[in-house]
Amino acid sequence: MRRLPTDPGTDRYPPRAAIEEWPSERLEAAAPVDPVPEGKEVFAAVRSLKKSFGPRRILRGINFDIYRGETFVILGGSGSGKTTLLKHLMGMLKPDYGTITIGGQDLAKANESEMGAYRRTMGVLFQNAALLNSLSVLENVGLPLIEVDQRPLDEVQARVIAALKRVFLPAEEILHLKPADLSGGMRKRVGIARAIIQDPQLIFYDEPTTGLDPVTVNGVNELTLDLQQSLGVTSVVITHDLDAAYMIADRIAVLYKGRFIAIGNQDAIEADPHPVLRQLLSGSTIGPLTEGYTDTGDRPRPAPKGIRRRSSTDGDKTPSASFPASGLTGPEPTHGQS
Amino acid sequence: MFKIVEWTGEVILRHARSAGRTVALGLVAARTLPQARQNMRQVIRQIDLCGFGSILVLSLIAGLTGMIMAVQTGTELLRFGVLDNIGAIIGATFCREMGPVWAAVIVLARVGSAMAAELGTMTVNEEVDALRVMSIDPVRYLVVPRLLALIIAMPLLTAIADAVGILGGGFATQAIFGQPMSVYMNSVWSLITGVDFYSGLAKSVVFGVIIGTIACDQGLNTRGGAEGVGRATTSTVVLSIVFVLVSNLVMTSFTIRVLKPLFG
Questions:
Q1: Rg (chain A; Cα; Å)
Q2: For residue A135, what is the nearest residue in chain B, using CA coordinates?
Q3: Which end of chain B is less packed: N or C, by CB atoms within 10 Å?
Q4: Average pLDDT for chain B
């Protein structure tokens, strides 16, 4: 299991003056696509992805690769375009511009049968599991086998039981229960069981830990890791849960105003001085993410109890040192500058 | 001034788009109808929900309406000494209009709104998206069973409404005006023709298609959480009743002007 961050936290956040050193075009500049590391195979490639809804530009030119077998976590604040991006990757939205190539198939140009074939290779865990309330657990998990593959019922039941056991659920006990009879954590696990029932190559997780208690959150995270390691699937996780991201991610991408501003492993993300990233990591109410929403002036505010703070390890309260590790005066960021 | 024109144009375009979307859903569902046999369990469940669940309340309303008609009409007919014709009037009214319209009103209020709310909740809870990503066509899986259930249930409900309404009128006539039931029923059979009865059943099928298509379209296009579900439900009831009555006018005119002269 990957390490969870342990940081002592401080009482201060980056002062506004330091953040304002970043001009807006630098704040929103897109991260370049890194060269493919040796031994990695590109499973999905997204290039120049743009999407608008009316006058609202949601995705403004996104480029990234997802490597086969990795867990790729997309972090971002509310309204950053995470869900829209996920819907493009799932083939539920067509881009206005750009390409999404997954497993050699350009989703933007795929016809219905090609999309059908693509969807059979993927599984999705929706935010609230999206189980059909009128169906039992057996019918919910076995739905693609019953409706799409039209497998015989005894085979469906055997595979559903195997999938439920795979996610550590008491299969025989809950098989004929309705989703309303299950706890939130169990519903998520049933959702994961449905996502893996067709042995997918790619699993999408949309906010998998939202609304769960800490113990269940850890359980879901461990399950995500376990599935990735045991089944060798490629996973794409949308979340704003930093602990979960650090725990499960091979690489993390940070979405801001429709662009990735940083992509890299945990160390690269932590070392990146981008103010948006720093605010996301610190949980501060002061910064570009909340620009215009707060009325705090330059007064640093303590974090609300329970929000994890990420800051310098030496306790220095100078502006530059109030950014973690690298700070604005630290090493040059690897992404996001234009 | 320009704002008013702009607003009016926007409203017209929005409703035109919505109507076009509903018609398109109906056409896609019609094309997908032969695949309904893959999902007969859903169809039977929907028939149970919309058909059997509506029988009691529809019978109550149809029976009461028949009795009220008997009281109102009988009083006037008695004044002119033609009470013997009351059965014909109530029978024809129910077979041609009251039966199918009452069935439609009960079904749209009870079933159409529930369908819109159920599908709307499924939409906002991403259950419909989940179906799509599993390559399960929501039209085949959700819309077609509901439409087929309404197509099957509506004529049955209409026939029940006809029968109960006519019988209710008969009991009221006997109780209030002392006319024997046999006289009343003879009067009923004297005027009603096959065209009256079957055109009523045909109307009810069209009403079922209208209610089902509008309810499913509103449900599948729900946006905005619980508030959106409420809006979809209200829109379903309002739109359904308007289009049921408009289509009723068209079909009644067609029956009177074309079918009646041809088949009596």
A1: 21
A2: B42
A3: N
A4: 91
Helices (H), chain A: 16-20, 24-27, 82-89, 112-119, 137-143, 153-166, 171-174, 184-196, 214-231, 242-248, 266-271, 275-282
Q: Please give the Cα distance from A161 to A319 (Å, whole number).
A: 56
CA of A117: which chain B residue's CA is closest?
B135
From the number of C-beta atoms within 10 Å of its C-beta (0-12, 13-18, 19+), residue A186 rates as buried
- If DSSP codes are grouped into helix, strand and coil, which group holds residue A246? helix
**Predicted ipTM?**
0.77
CA distance B161 to B148: 20
Instruction: Tell me the pLDDT tens digit for each residue of A174-183.
Output: 999 999 999 8
A36 vs B223: CA distance, rounded Å: 40
| Cβ pairs bridging A and B (under 8 Å) | 44
Whole-angstrom CA distances from B144 to A135, A336, B42, B43 are: 18, 50, 9, 8
Q: Which residues of B touch A127 (CB under 8 A)?
A: 126
- Which of A90, A94, A121, A124 should we substitute to test contact with B (largest number of B Cβ atoms within 10 Å)? A124
- In the predicted model, residues of chain B with pLDDT beneath 70 are 264
CA atoms of B118 and B141, how far apart (whole Å) = 14
Q: Which of B53, B93, B57 is nearest to B73 (CA)?
A: B93
**Alpha carbon of residue A28 to chain centroid:** 19
pLDDT band (50, 70, 90) for residue A4: very low
Q: What is the DSSP letter of B177?
A: I
Is this prediction's pTM over 0.95? no
Per-residue pLDDT tens over the stretch A200-232: 989 999 988 887 788 778 888 888 888 888 888
The backbone torsions φ and ψ at residue B196, rounded to the nearest 5 degrees and listed phi first, read -60, -50
A9 pLDDT tier (thresholds 50, 70, 90)? very low
A112 contact B CB<8A: no
pLDDT in tens, B155-170: 999 999 999 999 999 9
Per-residue confidence (pLDDT) for residue B115, from 0 to 100: 94
Token pair 């949308």 is found at: A238
d(C-alpha B173, C-alpha B86), whole Å: 8
